[in-house]
Amino acid sequence: MNKEIYENLKSKLSLSYCPYSNVHVAAYAKTNDGKEFYGVNVENPAYPSGICAERACLFGSVAQGAKVGSFKEVHVISNSKGILYCCSGCLQVMTHFMEPNGMVHFYNITGDKYEIRSIKELVPFQVQDKDIKF
Fold first, then answer.
1. What integer pLDDT is reported at residue 47 of this predicted model?
2. 78 and 23 in contact (C-beta within 8 Å)?
3. Under 8 Å between Cβ of 52 and 59
4. Cβ contact 115:105 at 8 Å
5. pTM score, whole prediction
6. 133 phi and psi, to 5 degrees?
7. CMP/dCMP-type deaminase domain spans which residues (predicted)?
8. Cα separation of 107 and 96, whole Å?
9. CA-based angle 35:115:72, to the nearest 5?
10. Using CA atoms, how far apart are residues 132 and 111, in angstroms rounded to an integer?
11. How far apart are CA 60 and CA 68, in angstroms?
12. Active-site positions?
């Protein structure tokens, strides 16, 4: 576990906006050329209109010049005592933003639980560009 990334992510939890679920999530993503991006979850009273931390991080990176497909790692923390895994929507987005051998790191709030998984392991049957071009 990278303590520096964990501490930075943990500090970002207070920036999330989650008055409905009270589930705070922060994400960090790093490209293969070392660029770093953060995101937090933001809820909305029209529930489907909110955004998860992972997608906020990755989608927001594009406006800052990141290239889709260039991410080598994503880190996710929540205010849970256990590991909170990404939703399926975020996982699919991550398959498009990450390199094929990309890794996803999960932390709990206290830092005593940590897991690392490959994006291929998390999403073995990915929808890719080639799948929607006929």
1. 85
2. yes
3. no
4. yes
5. 0.94
6. -110, 115
7. 1-121
8. 22
9. 25
10. 40
11. 11
12. 54
Q: Give pLDDT tens digits along the chain (134 positions).
A: 899 999 999 999 999 999 999 999 999 999 999 999 999 999 999 988 999 999 999 999 999 999 999 999 999 999 999 999 999 999 999 999 999 999 999 999 999 999 999 999 999 998 888 888 87
The answer to whether the beta carbons of residues 9 and 20 sit under 8 Å apart is: no
How far apart, in whole angstroms, are the C-alpha atoms of residue 108 and residue 79?
A: 7
Nearest residue to 38 (alpha-carbon basis) of 65, 87, 75: 75
Radius of gyration over every alpha carbon of the chain, rounded to an integer in angstroms = 14
By CB atoms closer than 10 A (0-12, 13-18, 19+), residue 48 is exposed
